[in-house]
Amino acid sequence: MDSIEHRTIHANGITMHVAIKGSENAPVILFLHGFPESWYSWRYQILALSSLGYRSVAPDLRGYGDTDAPAEITSYTCFHLVGDLIGLLDVVAPNEDKVFVVAHDWGAIIAWYMCLFRPDRVKALVNTSVLFIPRNPERKFVETLRTLYGDDYYMCRFQEPGVIEAEYAERGTERVLKELLTHRVAGPLFLPKGKGLNGAPLDAPLVLPSWLSEEDFKYYTNKFEQKGFTGGLNYYRNLDRNWELTAPWTGAQVTVPVKFIIGDGDLTYNSLGGKDYIDSGGFKRDVPFLEELVVMEGVGHFLNQERADEINKHIYDFFQKF
Predict the structure, then answer these.
(1) Out of 66, 105, 266, 286, which one is annotated catalytic?
(2) Is the peptide bond before 27 cis (omega within 30 degrees of 0)?
(3) Number of domains in the chain
(4) Where does the AB hydrolase-1 domain start and stop, copy by copy (predicted)?
């Protein structure tokens, strides 16, 4: 890990931390992390892909790690997030018109937006865990979630500023992260007040999974203790604002080459109609250049860490085509 370069970049009006490894002349892979993570969740991919001839670029996204976290909720819209990435690429890859993108969780959502807004900057995409979500012009996103799953559904519980932060502060950063990173239920995620995930007792014993060492977990814990969770939670608080802002893209397709990977034990595969969306052909309709779709057996949400070697091979094999 010591061989990874860490840089501070000024982009889109904020200061961003970015981890970089690989030759300056090598094709760039931009890695986008999710919640509750950071650049560090791509540690295995950064090392592997840079050794295979690519330049790995993995920022802490807005609100995370050592990147700025603006105070205003309205500073975390899809346009801000994609704008950060375009600004970042203009600094670290000024001579590359297009780059490869690999993303997970919220990073995957941002990657879909990036492909809608700036397909001219994306050579090909390996997206994981979160499917493309076509905009429903009839109903806002959070309203749809409440109708489907009720007020205790995690994205609904995240909406009110300060509420979850207060509960998380009472519970402690280490316990919160351990709950989120060890969660492995193939279905919707609920956060009942005064209880753990899906109603588990708050003192239920939690054991780190085999793919997450104590050292790795300590890195995440230290960063979230410094930064807090508000930045990451603000992404969820812009779900309806993003719905409003993206009205011009209603019915738009993702028109870059895509490989999509998901675990069959991922909550995203087993909720919000994810599996049906794939099986019915809806996903292929909305992402017409979907070239490969991989459903990994026995794998949960954090697949890029849980099955790092397999994910590295999937990324390399796909990008080699280009």
Answers:
(1) 105
(2) no
(3) 1
(4) 27-130
CATH code where residue 306 lies? 3.40.50.1820
Kindly name the residue from 64, 113, 236, 277 that is annotated as catalytic: 236
pLDDT tens-place string over residues 123-146: 999 999 999 999 999 999 999 999
Q: Respond yes or no: is residue 236 known to be catalytic.
A: yes
Instruction: For residue range 204-257, list pLDDT tens digits in order.
Output: 999 999 999 999 999 999 999 999 999 999 999 999 999 999 999 999 999 999
User: Residue 225 sits in which domain range?
Assistant: 5-320
Give the Cα separation of 91 and 89 in Å (integer). Answer: 5
Please give the structure tokens belonging to residue 304. 């890029």
pLDDT tens-digit readout, 277-304: 999 999 999 999 999 999 999 999 999 9
Provide CB contacts within 8 A for 9, sequence distance 6+.
15, 16, 17, 18, 59, 87, 88, 91, 92
d(CA 204, CA 206): 6
105 an active-site residue? yes
Catalytic hit among 33, 80, 104, 301: 301
Nearest C-alpha neighbor of 89 from the set 117, 121, 133, 120: 121
